[in-house]
Amino acid sequence: MSDVVVDDNRAAQLRDRAVDQLRASGDIVSKPVEAVMRQVPRHAFVPEASLEAAYDAFTAVVTKRNEDGAAISSVSAPQVQAMMLEQADIQPGMRVLEIGSGGLNAAYLAELVGPGGEVTTVDIDPDIVARAEGLLRANGYRQVRVVQADAAGGVPEHAPYDRILVTAGAWDIPPAWCEQLTDGGRLVVPLRIRNLTRALGLQHAGGHLASTSSRVCGFVPMRGEDQHDGQVLLVNGSEEIVLRFDDGSPRQTGLLDNTVRTPRAEVWTGVTVGRMEVIDTLQMYLATVLDDFCIMTVDTDLDTGLVAPSNTWFSLAAVDGHGFGYLTHRRTDDDNRVEFGAHALGPSAPAFAETLADHVRTWETEHRGGPGPRITIHPAGTPDDQLPQGPLRRVIDKKHSRVTLSWTRAVTGDEDEAATHPHTALV
User: Fold this and answer.
1) Structure pTM?
2) Residue spans per domain, the chain
């Protein structure tokens, strides 16, 4: 019995320490979210982990892997859960749908909505549903509905919902999610946009969704009807250099077969950032302005030095006709910052490397420190003239929706716009 008391005391200490860290980092900003994260015993929902691992503020706990060992379900890190709960702005008495079950997040939601609210959690995997249901019941949350279904259809029998929280990586927004959301309700979803995942807070109004917040994140991909794997292009037919596209690869990709036989062009931008500085707006800016934007990965076991990225598993890249280019960086002389540069290969490599560098410089002068793009989600088939307009935008067509990224210059001093996207600025 004394061991149990000691463990409980240690768990409470670790839980408080994690919450204190998240308050200091700005991931927890409201009293209700702080209160529930101090109250609910996270370790009771991740029995697979040690107490120290359960209360690591920035690390997820994997709860299921596939036959290849890849994670297919996890309990998100406390930082991610706090971030999304803050984005959702849960109020007492609300009806909430959680898409992607684990048990713990549903417990947080049940505490936030109180006895006058309702929480439904849904997952496609029967093992995950059984696990979540057992943990919720064992920890006193019998009021939470646990449903097994493909969440692409939502859970219509308990709709409408004031809030929908998606805790799996989504590529698209199924119509059911909007249809089951109240007018003025909010959807929080880790949405993949051109290979970049952002936890978006989206307000529902007038038949479409508009962003209220955006945070960098990573999630286990959603499975089921709306699973989307993207496309890969092997440069020169080898797995040494792979270009990953999210919305269709360029036509005539065979034109790249001889690209790696040309000299590599290199341009340095003069733009520097701190080594721990968040560059999410730069990523989204390049994804907006580059037509054939992609992510380049390099197999280090096959690497012959044809390309020399600073990050072999995730480099921002784009195809340009017969060639391609990518972003890289190098440390400054004082070793406190890094400078962005561009590499390119192909017959027009010098010009394309300069184009990439110019985009980085434009981001530096017009968008760095700003709110990032305003993101809207309209139903597929919405005419262009009914989408947001502006001098700098990108429309991305998906199966169910049209996603629009619209930019305004950060230097305009539009404080109201910046206030609606407080977490997209560089820190």
Assistant:
1) 0.89
2) 2-216, 231-366
pLDDT in tens, 152-176: 999 999 999 999 999 988 999 999 9
Candidate list 73, 74, 76, 211, residue with the active-site label: 76
The distance of Cα 309 from the centroid of its chain, to the nearest Å, equals 23
**pLDDT of residue 5 exceeding 70:** no
CB 81 within 8 A of CB 104: yes
Find out if CATH 3.40.50.150 is the number for domain 2-216. Answer: yes
3-state secondary structure at position 44 = helix
- The token duo for 1 is 């019995």
Query: Who contacts 116 (Cβ-Cβ below 8 Å, separation ≥6)?
Result: 92, 93
Amino acid making up residue 330: R
Q: Do residues 167 and 76 touch, judged by C-beta distance below 8 A?
A: yes
Sequence length of the chain is 427
Using CA atoms, how far apart are residues 273 and 34, in angstroms rounded to an integer?
Answer: 32
Decide which of 401 and 247 is more confident: 401
Residue 226, both tokens: 């709306």
Q: Are 287 and 301 within 8 A, CB to CB?
A: no
Q: What six digits make up the tokens of 296? A: 């380049």
* Peptide bond connecting 160 to the previous residue in cis, omega within 30 degrees of 0: yes
The answer to whether residue 76 is catalytic is: yes
